[in-house]
Amino acid sequence: MAAKGGLLMLENFIGGKFLPCSSYLDSYDPSTGEVYCHVPNSGKEEVEAAVEAARAAFPGWSSRSPQERSQVLQRLADLLEQSLEELAQAESKDQGKTITLARTMDIPRAVQNFRFFASSILHHTSECTQMDHLGYLHYTVRAPVGIAALISPWNLPLYLLTWKIAPAIAAGNTVIAKPSELTSMTAWMMCRLMEKAGVPPGVVNIVFGTGPRVGEALVSHPEVPLISFTGSQPTAERITQLSAPHCKKLSLELGGKNPAIIFEDANLDECIPTTVRSSFANQGEICLSTSRIFVQKSIYSEFLKRFVEATRMWKVGIPSDPSADMGALISKAHLEKVRSYIKKARMEGAQILCGEGVDKLNLPPRNQAGYFMLPTVITDVKDESCCMKEEIFGPVTCVVPFDSEEEVIQRANSVKYGLAATVWSGNVGRVHRVAKKLQSGLVWTNCWLIRELNLPFGGMKRSGVGREGAKDSYEFFTEVKTITVKH
Ligand SMILES: NC(=O)c1ccc[n+]([C@@H]2O[C@H](COP(=O)([O-])OP(=O)(O)OC[C@H]3O[C@@H](n4cnc5c(N)ncnc54)[C@H](O)[C@@H]3O)[C@@H](O)[C@H]2O)c1
Ligand SMILES: N/C(=C\C=C\C=O)C(=O)O
After folding, report:
1. Residues noted as catalytic
2. What is the pTM of this model?
């Protein structure tokens, strides 16, 4: 590990070794706007080295038993857990999220990802069908695919990267991971644990840098047959184009414009705090965040009053403050993009009920140049407005009224995305009916973000292609073969 001007310089992790890079990028602390470390600006050369290392490691790793691989994953989980506090501090500083969220969600989930796939890899079975009358038996076998490219975004850095690394290596693949260049720190820290966990050199390689340089070199490499990508829809389009000539296996987890549908018989005491959280947790930078709230007309005024009151109680503070509910957004460019939506809403005649431009943000002098904004509620906004159609990915949510069940389903479905929805009602029949008709890969009813890792996770329409989870990830990270035996 080198230091330039007293700042940490991260290194690529290739073939079990930390390797310096010929050029570096600045990485910013979102809470101050200051550069706080340097990240390798890798390109084709580093991708070639990683492919070579991953290729060399594949025969040994893929021929180990699932039990042996499972033990390695368990050890890595234990080591991550032992470093939980250090990793949480680093994630919070690097990403801008609150230390509380990093401690209670991001890092525990990274640990759980390794534990979960260490266990689930032990329990898969294959299919078999008999054609006894003709004298044949058919069965399937699965084998790891090879070198997997794993590309992840900046919002839940270690959480989402490990959600890919764990199933990929559990199934016997070797991997080249590329975290977002904006949040590389915890991935690099995890590399320091690989050797102790017993991960053989070359099984996990991490190459840091930007999408256009290192990401494109990786996804277009002919020896990388599968790509698991989480990020934005425009990047997914580019990856699809680049990988198409090679017929690569693709898993795409993309954005959302997630509705919350609140019926007049909803329990508002539960619905309001959960909907504030689903709108603003992690600064609204979660693909599952609520950004369109449809409220039945008879309770609209009451809901709006209580929702705005609860939003104003949501504390924006420096990420290291354990009492803060929200920290800083990821970058200056992203903050400006989020603010531009609020400006557009104003120009269209919408009302901003609280937050940006309405209330005052109080920050210590050192954090005045950080990328903070208040949670913002917009109303009197048309369904056709860009604020109701496009993914903002920040602490901004729109609240609009509706009359009937049929109407709200049609309006909720009227966007290009289909990732997650919440439905709030005390009527179990209605909850089932509405959930079934929503074009959404995930529907949480009377709750939000309760995760069961066994079941499929992913989006419909432009929110993605494929699903992740115990069975789905196993199927993605393996190739199936059908064998017929004459007897
Ligand atoms: N569905 C999900 O599970 C999920 C989870 C988290 C985030 N997201 C989505 O991610 C987006 C926010 O993340 P982001 O801004 O980091 O997304 P992004 O698409 O800009 O970047 C994601 C990753 O792709 C890389 N990348 C960028 N251009 C590339 C290229 N041309 N070739 C290869 N790789 C490239 C980036 O460096 C980064 O590592 C939002 O749309 C959000 O909804 C989806
Ligand atoms: N992939 C998952 C969450 C994605 C969140 C997006 O920001 C998960 O919980 O498995």
Report:
1. 253
2. 0.97
